[in-house]
Design a protein that fits this description.
CATH class: Mainly Alpha
CATH topology: Growth Hormone, Chain: A
Number of helices: 23
Strand content: under 5%
Order of helices and strands: HHHHHHHHHHHHHHHHHHHHHHHEEE
Helix content: over 70%
Oligomer: single chain
Radius of gyration: 23 Å
Strand order of the largest sheet: 1-2-3
Shape: globular
CATH superfamily: MFS general substrate transporter like domains
Largest sheet: 3 strands, antiparallel
Number of strands: 3
Length: 532
Amino acid sequence: MGEPKGSQNATYEAPENQVPAIQSPKKRRSNKYAMYCATLASMSSILLGYDYGVMTGAAISIKEDLHINDTQVEILVGTLGFYSLIGSAAAGRTSDWIGRRYTIVFAAVIFFIGALMMGLAVNYAFLMAGRFVAGIGVGYALMIAPVYTAEVSPASSRGFLTSFPEVFINFGILLGYVSSYAFSRIPLYLSWRLMLGIGVIPSVLLGVCVLAMPESPRWLVMQGRLGDAKRVLDKTSDSKEEAQLRLADIKEAARIPPECNDEIVTVSKQSHGEGVWRELLLRPTPSVRRVLIAGVGIHFFQAATGMSTVVLYSPRIFEKAGITSDNKKLAATVAVGFVKTIFILVATFFLDKVGRRPLLLSSVGGMIISLLGLGFGLRIVDTHPNEKIVWAMALCITTVLSNVAFFSIGLGPVTWVYNSEIFPLRLRAQGASIGVAANLVTGGIISMTFISLYNAITISGSFFLFAGIAIVAWIFFFTFLPETQGKTLEEMEGLFGKFDWRDSINSKVNSQGKQATATTNGDVQLGTKGGS
């Protein structure tokens, strides 16, 4: 076994820490441990998914039981994003203080309290108070799960593992849809309370299970616990050599001397988060500025293309398409949940094989066609109110499902993968929280105004508007986002400093003596070492 080891070490040094060159053809069992950690952490995303999914059906019962109007429904449904903003903003500093793992536990506890309050609500005001508390818990979970997963994942499977939060969001949405459909047949006053209150179950399971996973190695290094970090990296890397390289890169990012091998060291305050906001927002370097724009931009466009309206208001969309029965509307909504879950599972297996850019661009391209088709179908139905045009109804249902499918194979998972991996270590928690905040604010505004929007410009006009936003999103992604597949987290800042979209459509580009090879799908792989 001595000869392979030697060759592996030589391979590692030659490309200057470039992870794709050191991947062995046969992965160690340790990757199963990384998958175990990623799965436990990503379970926190079920909280958001369940809340979104269950509110789709619960809003129908709540409106009837509490006698609230459409504006109050919009506020009830849409304010979750704004409430989550509080948790997301606080999660960055909290996770740097108490650690990634205990922040996930904290999120589960907060959501438990909120779900319990909603389940016991006796009026609209108490229900909104419970939604406020649950929203803070959702915000914590949304920010920290992708960050932890990215920090614990080896580069060879980081795309696969960091897509898990989106997988669990979709699984949570499906659970919420199924819960809405199952409880819709019981007495009205009890149905929506059970739908919302049953959310305490996943939060309890999450809080218990997360205690079984290790702390993030990058957070451990930030605390000076090099020995603990090395043990976690040994378990979650593809090889011992990769574990050593990952530790060296993290130490460099945390400003710890490379020769230091003590179990516990003293880390400067700079590594604990002081000055991070100044470096992110007030005096960013050109590469950090590009990273920040990319993180905020991809989250903004994920929300602005209107997927939250499909998830939250699908019964109304199906009603506008001609489906009048409540049971049939909820059944069609469950179909949306199944499609989202199936296609997100497909996407997870292609993120590390195909890359982020091809999935993202093809996903948004498909969404543009689907949104235009949905707008056209709804327009036909609107202009013939007294006729049942079967082909237009079929077009609306088909394009809703295809829009969900295209979103799930690219824009859905890639957003969380990208935002969790592009920020350098010293800025990661706070930087990721800014991206999530942009998502929550944008999604909250759209969710809170969708009914008013389609009353003003028609429901078909709303989806034509989302299609226009999707076109702008495609242009932004094509020109601004480099391929990050296979890069270590510590190389990202350098990668963004060098990226030029024109390189992605040339076969070979030489710039300042550095070779860039553009693959046929438009990805750029830079053969240079970046640093945080």
